[in-house]
Structures are given as structure tokens and as C-alpha cells.
Write a structure and sequence with these properties.
This protein is mainly beta. It is built from one helix and seven strands. The protein has one helix spanning 74-83; strands spanning 3-4, 15-22, 27-29, 39-40, 52-53, 61-68, 101-108. The strands form two sheets. Strands 2, 3, 4, 6 and 7 form a five-stranded antiparallel sheet that branches. The longest helix has 10 residues, at 74-83. The two termini are 32 Å apart.
């Protein structure tokens, strides 16, 4: 539907920030901490501990996940992202990030959420419920 989770794999740097950018250029920061620093991003665990949502009217988005060996200042990264001349073609080389840094770019197209179908209990022996 309209939600997704970001789950780092092993070998990624331990700090991250995530953003979506729509075709119209609308940019959203997904990871927002009280300290305005990057999240701790443990392998195999969803970033932020919850799913993220993209409104249907935004259409397809690119998801930018910045991984770094050091705590990134979210304000600085956000400003660099907004100042980038072409956010759709962004690379880690365009950014001024401390430490070892990497950028993962994913694509996501939101779709109508579908309600689950209610069925009936199926007996393993084929008998009636």
C-alpha cells in the first residue's frame, strides 16, 4: 500500500538519515530525532522502529538513505539536499558528509491500501469449523 520499512543490512555504517523526494521535488525528512542528529541504524532492525508512509497523491518517490560512520547533523544534510541542483540524480559525492559515508537510493510507488479479506477458520483435517 502506502507504507514501507527501511531495514539496513550488515556492513552498512551505523548512523543514518532518510528522505523521500517526489517527482515534483517535494522533499520529506523521514528520520527526525530530538537532537537533530542521525539515527542509530542497527542491521536487521527497521530504521526509526516503525514504517513510513507516502501519500498516494505524491506518486512515485525516491528514497535517499545516507549512512555514515559519524553522527550526521540532520539540518546540514537537509539543507544540502534542498540546495542540490538535481535531487533525482544525487550521489554521495555531491554531499559534504563527515567520516565514511554511503548513499542508498531506492524507489517506492504508493498504491491503494487494500483491506484484508475476512475468511473462516480452516480445519487441518478438512472438517467443519
Amino acid at each position: 500500500g502506502t507504507t514501507f520499512e527501511l531495514v539496513p543490512t550488515s556492513g552498512q555504517q551505523e548512523h543514518c538519515l532518510a528522505y523521500t523526494v517526489s517527482r515534483s521535488g517535494l522533499t520529506r525528512q523521514l528520520t527526525m530525532s530530538r537532537s537533530n542528529l542521525a539515527f542509530e541504524c542497527a542491521p536487521g532492525r527497521p530504521i526509526g522502529g516503525h514504517p513510513f508512509k507516502v501519500p498516494l497523491n505524491e506518486g512515485p518517490v525516491k528514497i535517499f538513505i545516507f549512512f555514515s560512520s559519524e553522527h550526521l547533523n540532520a539540518g546540514s544534510v537537509s539543507q544540502q539536499l534542498l540546495d542540490a541542483p538535481d535531487r533525482q540524480a544525487l550521489s554521495v559525492m555531491n554531499m559534504r558528509l563527515p567520516g565514511k559515508a554511503a548513499l542508498e537510493v531506492l524507489e517506492f510507488t504508493p498504491e491503494e491500501d487494500v483491506a484484508p479479506e475476512v475468511g473462516e477458520l480452516v480445519q487441518p483435517d478438512g472438517g467443519q469449523p
